[in-house]
């Protein structure tokens, strides 16, 4: 079996330029030969995710690298104790923990499918998704708007819902890719 030899470059994506720089430095301290590229993106913003995807694609083309992604690890998440709204009108926790992962996965699917080797998607969640036993599927719950109007922001419940939705995303991606 022939396995093509392709250059491996790891991409770090995050909101904070400072934290990205620290992460790159720590990885380089452990492995000075690591090929790394940092991209700044806010996963609570669909616009920012689209800009990241465009930047990544352009960087791959400009670098003469194969225009593909071999592994996507959706690990971003927040636990907000007060209500915040994204530019798109989602509860920020749901926007970051679920909508952002969904949009990023959807936008990167062509690059994952273009990989010359088997590609993988890993959705990191937490055990808290198990606490959701009666997931409501309506606009208010999916967007988080239902929670924003609560007298006391139920942050634990919103976090649990956002993690359950990411778990469902994982199941949907698996079903879509393995039909």
From TrEMBL:
Record keywords, A-Z: Oxidoreductase
Protein name: Uncharacterized protein
One Pfam match: adh_short
GO terms for MF: oxidoreductase activity
Alphabetical list of Gene3D superfamilies matching this protein: NAD(P)-binding Rossmann-like Domain (3.40.50.720)
UniProt KW Oxidoreductase keyword: yes
Annotated InterPro entries: NAD(P)-bd_dom_sf, SDR_fam
Family, as annotated: Belongs to the short-chain dehydrogenases/reductases (SDR) family.
KW Lipoprotein (keyword) present: no
């Amino acid at each position: 079996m022939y396995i093509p030899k392709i250059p491996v470059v790891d991409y770090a994506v995050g909101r904070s330029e400072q934290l990205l720089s620290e992460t790159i430095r720590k990885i380089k301290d452990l492995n000075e030969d690591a090929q790394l590229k940092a991209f700044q993106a806010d996963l609570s913003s669909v616009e920012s995710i689209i800009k990241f995807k465009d930047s990544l694609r352009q960087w791959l083309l400009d670098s003469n690298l194969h225009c593909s992604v071999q592994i996507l690890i959706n690990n971003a998440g927040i636990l907000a104790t007060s209500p915040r709204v994204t530019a798109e009108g989602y509860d920020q926790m749901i926007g970051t923990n679920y909508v952002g992962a969904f949009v990023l996965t959807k936008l990167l699917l062509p690059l994952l499918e273009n990989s010359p080797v088997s590609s993988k998607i890993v959705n990191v969640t937490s055990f808290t998704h198990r606490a959701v036993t009666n997931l409501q599927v309506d606009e208010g719950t999916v967007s988080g708007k239902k929670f924003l109007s609560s007298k006391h922001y139920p942050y634990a419940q919103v976090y649990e819902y956002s993690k359950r939705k990411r778990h469902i995303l994982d199941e949907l991606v698996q079903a879509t890719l393995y039909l």
